[in-house]
Amino acid sequence: MATMIIEGERTKAESGKTYEVRNPATGEVVDEVPAGDAADVDRAAHAAAKAFTTWSRLPANKRADILHKAAQHMLTKVEHIAPILTKEQGKTLLESRIEAQRFGENIAWFADLADKIHGEHVRLPDLTTYGLVLRRPIGVCGAIVPWNFPLTLAANKVAPAIAAGNTVVLKPASTTPLSTLACIEALIEGGLPEGVVNVVLGQATGEAIVSHPLIRKIALTGSTPTGKNVMARAAEGLKKVTLELGGSDPCIVLDDADLEGAARAISVGRFFNCGQACLAVKRLYVQEGAYDALLEKLVARASKLKPGNGMDKDSRMGPMHTETQRAEVEAQVKDAIDRGARVVFGGGRPQGGDYERGWFIEPTILEDVPDGARMWTEEVFGPALPVRKIKDLDEGLRLANDSPFGLGSSIWTTSMAAAHRGVEELEAGYTWVNALQIAHDELPFGGTKQSGFGKEHGVEAYLQYTEEKSVVYGGI
Ligand code: NAD
């Protein structure tokens, strides 16, 4: 049975309760884990507060050194961790390897910053005094993570937090705790001191983290309704919040675009991780002259995405993570069809054999999806793509921005002027121009509108795990 990790110790829930983690491809039990609650969060928060007193005072270069060694050790375990992630989440082994690798790289990227970001010296008008701005860690930080990218989204929070000298209480999604435990165990084996990162498990631990008085900042990745709830509860404790929430990224393809490149990016952007990605091409707007050719290329690519158990070498797309999640996407697709949309590809479940054991779904492309359909107005968190013909860029931009969300966006064109308009006018935290929708460690990533606020990745994320303190030295 798996355990939580509090102050470096493997521990059960105080209540003794447990629950099962199941494989979305087979329904089989992968492991049994503790169902923690507020009592376990309290233990973890105290352990993190105790560790903070030493971790935050370590010389920054020493902290960087410890994190680099821990990350390097974790990276030697990628082949051990990837199958654990596939079994609990469903994604293909290739996707799991990429994700586990990204976890270690992210820790190392922020370790590099630990001794390179400084405060400031400020001249004051009275020459017998001078000012300093210290940049200090915040304290104990809560990290709450969803199930779609359990490792990268945990690293996005843990890495900048601990590099800046904070300590963490981390809560993975209830259905994907095992690979996260394996990553944190590997960091501890690699030298991360006990109590710097504590992992609590179970649905009830989320709310307990948000309301615990020792926890000073909450970083949540999750749905927009969860974000609103967490922000309201965090306000009661005046905690800082970073909210990475839902998205419905538009992609605009103009007549002059590189259609082969666009088709590849859209296919990866929509179908990677079985479409369960926050940054994903979720609404496609294609100019009339490119429409038929692009659709043909997209169908050709979708037809190669064989759904299957992520552990099988020939699977190109794993199952949906849960039955509920699949039902939700199927209902969104049905709503579009009921309103008159046409299925260009997929639209159902693969049938027979092992497909009956898991939450499999076909990659799906729809056209003529009417205005107001759920696929346009809601986040579609699965491999289904609505495509719409547009006359020109003006129409594309108008439709792209007609969404409550503002996470990612992309535009494909060879016109510098059109690209520039996309960059200026698309309402989103990220715009890719003629490029694959990949979030880079170097660039701040986060949403606008109902997609939340605050940044992960980049120097900006590190800064958000620090606070400034002004100091005046007098009598000189
Ligand atoms: P979710 O909001 O249901 O859960 C996310 C996490 O929050 C889980 O660990 C859950 O246990 C916890 N949680 C739920 N309610 C809580 C509460 N009241 N207090 C504290 N914690 C609580 O989301 P999900 O279904 O696991 O993930 C899918 C959603 O995440 C999608 O909307 C997706 O777009 C979003 N997401 C966003 C990003 C991003 O970076 N913007 C990345 C990935 C996923």
Written description of the protein model:
By secondary structure, this protein is α/β, with parallel strands linked by helices. It has 2 domains: 4-245 and 451-473, Aldehyde Dehydrogenase, Chain A, domain 1 (3-Layer(aba) Sandwich), CATH 3.40.605; 249-440, Aldehyde Dehydrogenase, Chain A, domain 2, CATH 3.40.309. Helix content is 39%, strand content 21%. The chain has 15 helices and 22 strands. It has a 7-stranded mixed sheet, with helices on both faces. A 6-stranded mixed sheet has the order 9-8-7-10-11-21, sandwiched between helices. The model has no long low-confidence stretch (mean pLDDT 98). It binds nicotinamide-adenine-dinucleotide. Nicotinamide-adenine-dinucleotide (NAD) is lined by residues 144-149, 153, 171, 173-174, 203, 206-207, 210, 220-223, 226, 229-230, 244-247, 278, 379, 381, 407, 447, 451. The site of nicotinamide-adenine-dinucleotide has 31 residues, from helix 7, strand 10 and helix 8.
